[in-house]
Specification:
This protein has 16 helices and 36 strands. Helix content is 28%, strand content 31%. It is of the alpha+beta class and 690 residues long. The two termini are 63 Å apart. The chain has a seven-stranded mixed beta sheet, sandwiched between helices. It has a six-stranded antiparallel beta sheet with strand order 18-17-23-14-15-22. Strands 28, 33, 34, 35 and 36 form a five-stranded antiparallel beta sheet that branches.
């Protein structure tokens, strides 16, 4: 395929709920266009686009695939994205590379949770939108009900450009409202049969046409005034001349209908994509860091934005680029604005699923894949000057932490290398090696993303890993003042060891650790006082109740004795540890649990259930508010251990519609039952030698 002109490129991102048929729509368009010899299907693992082993196993899209479709003189880049909430980061990053979001909605289920979430994101991006109502041939499909739900959910700017001829098992074809013709796709051929509208659908078609004209007329002020005054109806020429403008300006959101399985409504959709959907130059300018913008322009110096990075076990790193300016060619060197280093474009690929095809050039507006860019990652910008830097879309923050260990300890290095590579290509994966808990904690968007990581780890490296409970960073402190002696005496022939100190421990809320030297009269030589301080700090690091570090304690050494020969730093350090533990026993030691501040956003219908659930987790409702979408925002303070895996619980309560942010801030005294549980677990582990 030769590099198309910018005006002949259409970058369409397919979005919506899992199961609505996004991949099936892409496969149907590939087949109807003649790009593929058969209709790829996901249910039997023979999809051109869902080719990854995990996608075949799970039967849903995990990572964005590209379907470049030649249609007449145009190139349609279909970007097939995941509708699973765990992989929404990849979907959002892909949306930034498109000029149009085509929402695929099931005719029976209607728009669901992910559809609504992604619709709002598209609105925030000022991304033009369209809807394809799929599965109209299914039992209980209802086009009017689906349209009513779309209007209720997303507003009155949606208008049908095709309506079905029959529904359920009686579905035969679609009526093209723009051209006022009936379109039938016969069998497995690749051409539609176009006829006059059946008489029984004439009124429905005219009503849809009138609504279409009402919406599209707003794109031209002069025509709109005439239209409102009733002077004239929009002519066919006027309607067609305004459609692309109305769609690009988001004045009108076209709704298509069909069935991907029997390929009805597909060819007309492709014609309208090429005729009326915005091309890259009409979409507007990309926002650059610092406030400037850049327009898509093939006459300017080359520049490209990396919206996605893929780690292929055979090819290596694959960078998905949206060409912003100029013409890219193999061998070209561009500068990464983040690193300041040059990257050489060895090959340019057009990807069709997993199959790469070498191309000689790519013009502004097109989407291309470049392998083996050494230091470039998602969100980077490449240009000849290195001065162009696009602001990447802020992605959701992962909130689901799990601790991962290699089953075989000798594989820990391989595990670490793999996780680092995954985090590099997927910004919604965060890796943290905790020196305190000695765990590798991976924070993701949810369980499915974790399962996918473990499967790919074994598939790509042969390493097996397991999940273990995340160790929560508890702390310990004291609640009253206490004194105790620490005395260490050891005689083994020759020089012995002798250390003797009296310590006073006091609560020091919020002020951390403080050590005070109150020795008078040389009871302990000044040169040995630092050893007492060090011994106390070592004892605090070990904890007293359950092995967690102790905090907010003031320690004073106020008396003691020494031996001129046997006293040394080691002896006084040991004495201090003994004295500290003895004083702790009398100072009312307590366990402190880390606390989380949360902001939970849910629809009003789930607010009560969420509040009730939070109370079972010992959480407190700090306040409530509402946002512009009418959702309830619940501010919560809760023990972090109780909300560590709240992602899956909130999804269950709200059917996937809720969201939250969380920050760990401060400590509070743990209740008796929690303290007992932690102390018992600590002593049991010590008894086992752990």
């Amino acid at each position: 395929m030769a590099a198309p002109a910018t005006e002949h490129v259409r970058n369409i991102v397919l979005v919506g709920q899992d199961g609505a048929g996004k991949t099936s729509l892409a496969e149907a368009m590939l087949y109807v266009s003649g790009k593929t010899p058969r209709m790829g299907t996901t249910h039997d693992g023979k999809s051109y686009l869902d080719y990854d082993a995990e996608e075949i196993k799970r039967k849903f899209t995990i990572s964005t695939s590209i379907a470049p479709i030649p249609y007449k003189d145009f190139k349609i880049n279909l970007l097939d994205t995941s509708g699973h909430p765990d992989f929404i980061g990849d979907t959002l990053a892909t949306m930034q590379a498109a000029e149009m979001a085509l929402f695929v909605v099931d005719a029976v289920a209607g728009p669901q949770v992910m559809t609504t979430k992604l619709w709002r994101e598209a609105e925030n991006m000022r991304l033009s939108r369209a809807v394809f109502i799929n599965h109209i041939d299914r039992e209980n499909a209802n086009f009017d009900a689906a349209m009513a739900t779309l209007h209720a959910r997303f507003g009155s700017r949606l208008g049908a450009v095709t309506i079905p001829i029959g529904v359920d098992k009686d579905f035969k074809g679609v009526i093209d409202i723009i051209r006022m013709k009936a379109r039938y796709f016969d069998g497995d051929g690749t051409a539609e049969r176009i006829e006059d509208i059946p008489a029984e659908y004439a009124d429905a078609a005219q009503n849809a046409r009138d609504k279409l004209c009402d919406l599209v007329a707003e794109a031209d002020d002069e025509l709109m005034m005439k239209y409102l005054d009733g002077e004239e109806q929009l002519t066919q020429e006027e309607l067609e001349s305004l459609l692309d403008k109305a769609i690009a300006q988001e004045l009108f959101i076209p709704v298509f209908v069909g069935s991907t399985i029997i390929k009805q409504g597909i060819q007309g959709l492709m014609e309208d994509i090429c005729t009326y959907f915005p091309h890259p130059r009409s979409h507007g300018r990309f926002q650059m860091a610092g406030g400037d913008t850049i327009a898509i322009d093939e006459t300017k110096r080359p520049a490209a934005f990396v919206f996605k990075t893929l780690s292929d076990p055979f090819v290596g790193r694959m960078s998905f680029l949206k060409v912003l300016a100029g013409i890219l060619e193999p061998g070209m060197e561009l500068i990464n604005s983040r690193t300041g280093k040059k990257e050489r474009l060895g090959h340019l690929y057009v990807m069709m699923g997993k199959e790469p095809t070498d191309v000689k050039s790519a013009k502004a507006g097109d989407i291309i894949v470049v392998p083996k860019l050494s230091e470039t990652k998602s969100g980077d910008t490449l240009s000849q000057s290195g001065e162009i830097s696009i602001d990447p879309l802020p992605l959701p923050t992962p909130q689901y932490p799990v601790a991962i260990e290699a089953v075989n300890k000798k594989d820990e290095d391989k595990l670490g290398t793999f996780l680092a590579r995954m985090a590099e290509v997927d910004p919604t994966i965060r890796i943290n090696r905790s020196e305190e808990t000695h765990q590798t904690v991976v924070t993701t968007m949810g369980e499915a993303q974790v399962d996918m990581l473990l499967s790919r780890l074994k598939e790509q490296t042969g390493v097996e890993a397991k999940l273990v409970p995340v160790r929560v960073p508890y702390r310990e402190t004291i609640r009253k003042t206490a004194e105790a002696q620490g005395r260490h005496k050891k005689q083994t022939g020759g020089a012995g060891q002798f250390g003797d100190c009296w310590l006073r421990l006091s609560p020091n809320p919020g002020a951390g650790y403080e050590f005070v030297d109150e020795i008078k009269g040389g009871a302990i030589p000044g040169g040995l006082i630092p050893a007492v301080d060090k011994g106390v700090q070592e004892a605090m690091a070990e904890g007293f109740l359950a092995g967690y570090p102790m905090v907010d304690i003031k320690v004073a050494v106020f008396d003691g004795s020494y031996h001129p020969v046997d006293s040394n730093e080691m002896a006084f350090k040991t004495a201090a540890r003994i004295g500290f533990r003895a004083a702790c026993e009398k100072a009312n030691p307590v366990l402190l649990e880390p606390m989380a501040n949360m902001s939970i956003t849910v629809s009003e219908e789930y607010a009560g259930a969420v509040m009730g659930d939070i109370s079972t987790r010992r959480g407190r409702i700090v306040g409530t508010d509402s946002n512009d979408a009418g959702e309830t925002i619940i501010m919560v303070r809760a023990p972090y251990a109780e909300v560590l895996t709240y992602t899956k619980d909130l999804r269950s309560i709200t059917r996937g519609s809720g969201s939250y942010t969380i920050t760990v801030e401060g400590y509070e005294e743990a209740p008796h039952d929690v303290t007992k549980k932690m102390v018992d677990a600590y002593h049991a582990a010590r008894a086992e030698g752990k």
